[in-house]
UniProtKB/TrEMBL annotation:
Localization in the cell: Cytoplasmic vesicle membrane; Endomembrane system; Golgi apparatus
The protein's name: AP-1 complex subunit gamma
SMART domains reported for this sequence: Alpha_adaptinC2 (SM00809)
Membrane topology: Peripheral membrane protein
Family named by the database record: Belongs to the adaptor complexes large subunit family.
Origin species: Fundulus heteroclitus (Killifish)
Gene Ontology biological process: axis elongation; central nervous system development; intracellular protein transport; vasculature development; vesicle-mediated transport
Ranges of Polar residues composition bias in the record: 639-654
Signal as UniProt keyword: no
Signal sequence bounds: none
Length: 795
């Protein structure tokens, strides 16, 4: 290829290359020719060669050797050279390159050039790649150009000032007077640049924001002129007058009216006029309406105006464009807490969006439908959600199931409905539910004693139908083990009575034990249920004994240990078997969102003290003779024992018998309860508080408990914690207790982290906190350098 090949010929040769290797050969030859001509100081085709090099750069090949040529061409007095030089600088240079500092003086000279197009080149380049140092040096020149009489230069200078404010925040004060004066311009381009500049200034300085709140009437007048103006061929887009400027003004009004009642009142009438007069049949009109809705919902607007904004979003839900439906549901999710009644009117349309083919629309519709569930619509909404669960994509099943569980727990109209709903979810998507579902359902079943017969019959039929859903099988095995006697009686008023024999029940449990689909946890449930049935049936105890003995040599250690213990119960402690395997007591729920294992230390102490007091009141006083008889059985001497002080505390001042002293000795052997580990707050933001507490298990072992709570007024969903430690430290994170944080601290999330530090390195942990609050995803990082209650020498 000849060095003088035009740009079009080089492009044609590159495109005609059949292989990547052939293309690289063409580019390498051309780059070599361009280098050679760059060395020639009398080269007349410098702009031509740099243009070819820029095309090579666009293809992804290295073109850094053209940076200095860009600097030379920018310094050229010819406009054609400057144009290509500035274009090359914007593509090949950035603020990290030292060569960018060489063009600062050239840009400053060109900003004072008599040709407006040369000034425009310099402004565009500075706005594209100007570093903080360049912005500080050239900011006075930009402020001078903002006062220019040329509208073409003023709009370019305004956008360049936006870049300067983003790079160097303290330079914003320099542009405040000029930006204020630009609002009186008639040119739409200048107005657009001025609004963008004022927006940046207000976002970065609260003092500037207060100063520009005085411009709200001016902005309202500009916006009204755009809304009521007739057809303008220069600015009309699909029947809307300059929608780009309208959107920018609405965004600025949203910033100025936020948390300010006076500014909000000044723009209420305008927003109502825009909302009612803008055409919603075109995408351009929908864009203006969407910005209007966001502004109405973000400022201190009137209640009627907010209802109008929600109704506009409701119309968006009926739009054929999926993008419009998606942003409508995203906006509704942000306001469902504050404007629940207004959003509730569109519940039917939102539920219909669950049938949409787009996965993103389905996810938003699911989240919004779950947020709209209340005590008044729980039955109808849950019916639609259960239908959706049966056909939803696999990636949404876990989220849908978790949301249904939370809604059913909060708004269940009856215990039977609650149990039926959870069983329906387990039957449909049992493999996708969270780990805490099984213990939560077991607790619910335990607390509803009047439904034990109904529940065990229903779970037994579900077990015979399908054993692939492991959580369902685990709950069914537990219920059969606990309430197998009710199942065998066959008398149930709530459901159709089915005659079940002992062999039928044992056959079902043996199928679970032998199935390849059963996990070790499920087999453990089934084996325990089989063992418990040994006290609830009469004729098949020997069969149960043989089944249990088989698993005494199981390869699974946990299952083997259970089987060995159950065998010992049969052989050595058969007289205790009925007492050991009796029905589980009712699991008490201590407070809202808290079950056993999630209560505070004070609650535990109070409950323990109450139990001790009840036992002391219930026990009748024992005669001294009975205690002496006990001493005689133990082989005590006939002589009375001398009184001795208690090992566990101070000596009693009351007269005691020898038996009382012995009981004091036995009581003194009670272990002292461990001192609870202190909790330290490591994260507190947006109402979310994360605390850690530690317990040292061994010289190298440490258990860290992470506890999260939400004190804000809105629920938080999708709450996840991720932890990272040094490479030599072994980390194991257990499953969290829940995946959401209800508002106002209604429930807490706990998660255990087990650490093993065999090399005794300096222990540090980095925790990533991720959650969704009011539709916005939040992700933060926390560094934990010290662990409470753990000495430095310990780990």
């Amino acid at each position: 290829m000849s060095p003088s090949v035009p740009l079009q010929e080089m492009i044609r040769a590159i495109r005609s290359a059949r292989t990547q290797c052939e293309e690289r050969g063409v580019i390498q030859r051309e780059c070599a020719a361009i280098r050679a001509q760059f060395r020639n100081t009398d080269n007349e085709g410098r702009s031509h060669n740099l243009a070819k090099l820029l095309y090579v750069h666009m293809l992804g090949y290295p073109a850094h050797f053209g940076q200095m040529e860009c600097v030379r061409m920018i310094a050229s007095p010819r406009y054609s050279d400057k144009r290509v030089g500035y274009l090359g600088a914007m593509m090949l240079l950035d603020e990290k390159q030292d060569a960018s500092l060489l063009i600062t003086n050239s840009i400053k000279n060109d900003l004072s050039h008599s040709n407006q197009y040369v000034q425009s080149l310099a402004l565009c380049t500075l706005a594209c790649m100007g570093s903080a140092e360049m912005c500080r040096d050239l900011a006075p020149e930009i402020d001078r150009l903002l006062r220019s009489s040329n509208s073409y230069i003023k709009k370019k200078a305004a956008l360049c000032a936006v870049h300067i404010v983003r790079k160097v925040r303290e330079l914003g004060e320099l542009f405040v007077p000029s930006a204020r004066s630009l609002l009186s311009e008639k040119n739409h381009g200048v107005l657009h640049g001025a609004v963008v500049l004022i927006t940046q200034l207000c976002e970065r300085s609260p003092e500037t924001l207060e100063r520009f709140r005085k411009t709200v009437p001016d902005l309202v007048q500009i916006m009204k002129g755009l809304v009521i103006s007739g057809y303008s061929p220069d600015h009309d887009v699909a029947g809307v007058s300059d929608p780009f400027l309208q959107v920018r003004i609405l965004r600025l009004l949203r910033i100025l009216g936020r948390h300010n009642e006076a500014a909000s009142d000044a723009m209420n009438d305008l927003l109502a006029q825009v909302a009612t007069n803008t055409d919603s049949t075109k995408t351009v009109g929908n864009a203006v309406l969407y910005e209007t809705v966001l502004t109405v919902l973000d400022i201190k607007s009137e209640s009627g105006l907010r209802v109008l904004a929600v109704n506009i979003l409701g119309r968006f839900l009926l739009n054929n464009d999926r993008n419009i439906r998606y942003i409508a549901m995203t906006s509704l999710q942000k306001i469902v807490v504050t404007d629940h009644i207004a959003v509730q009117r569109h519940r039917g349309t939102i539920v219909d969006c669950l049938k949409d083919q787009d996965a993103s629309v389905k996810r938003r519709a699911l989240e919004l439908s779950l947020a709209l569930v209340s005590a008044s619509n729980i039955r109808s909404t849950m019916k639609e959600l259960l239908i959706f669960l049966s056909s939803c994509p696999p990636e949404l099943r876990a989220h849908a199931a978790s949301g249904i569980f939370n809604a059913a727990e909060r708004y269940a109209p009856s215990q039977r409905w609650h149990i039926d709903t959870i069983l329906h979810v387990l039957t449909t998507a049992g493999a996708d539910v969270r780990d805490e579902t099984v213990p939560n359902l077991i607790q619910l079943i335990t607390n509803t004693s009047e439904l034990h017969c109904y529940t065990v019959h229903k779970l037994y039929r579900a077990l015979l139908t399908d054993i692939s859903q492991q959580p369902l099988v685990q709950v069914a095995c537990w219920c059969i083990g606990e309430y197998g006697d009710l199942l065998l009686k066959g008398e149930c008023q709530e459901t159709e009575a089915v005659q079940v024999t002992e062999d039928d029940v044992l056959d079902a449990l043996e199928i679970v034990l032998q199935s390849h689909m059963s996990t070790p946890t499920t087999r453990g449930f089934a084996l325990t249920a089989t063992m418990k049935l040994s006290t609830r049936i009469i004729d098949n105890v020997d069969r149960i004994r043989s089944v249990v003995s088989i698993y005494g040599s199981c390869i699974d250690v946990e299952l083997q240990q259970r089987a060995v213990e159950y065998n010992a119960l049969f052989k050595k402690y058969d007289h205790m078997r009925a007492a050991v395997l009796e029905r589980m007591p009712v699991i008490q729920k201590n407070s809202v969102g808290q079950t056993n294992g999630e209560v505070g230390e004070e609650t535990v102490k109070e409950s323990q003290a109450a139990k001790v007091a009840q036992k002391e009141m219930a026990l009748p006083p024992q005669p001294a003779g009975q205690v002496c008889d006990l001493l005689d059985l133990l082989g005590g001497s006939q002589e009375p024992l001398q009184p001795s002080s208690s090992l566990g505390g101070a000596a009693s001042t009351q007269p005691t018998t020898a038996g009382g002293d012995l009981l004091d000795l036995l009581g003194g052997l009670e272990p002292t309860p461990p001192t609870p580990a202190p909790a330290v707050t490591v994260y507190e933001k947006n109402g979310v508080t994360l605390t850690i507490s530690c317990e040292q298990q061994s010289d190298s072992g440490l258990t860290v408990t992470l506890t999260a709570s939400n004190s804000s007024d809105s629920d938080i969903s999708g709450f996840t914690l991720q932890a990272a430690v040094p490479k030599s430290v072994q980390l194991q994170m257990r499953a969290p207790s829940r995946d959401s944080l209800p508002a106002n601290g209604a429930a807490k999330l706990t998660q255990l982290v087990i650490l093993n530090n065999p090399n005794k390195v300096n222990l540090k942990m980095r925790i990533r906190v991720s959650y969704t609050s009011q539709g916005s995803a939040v992700q933060d990082m926390v560094q934990v350098d010290s662990f409470p209650g753990i000495s430095a020498a310990g780990l």
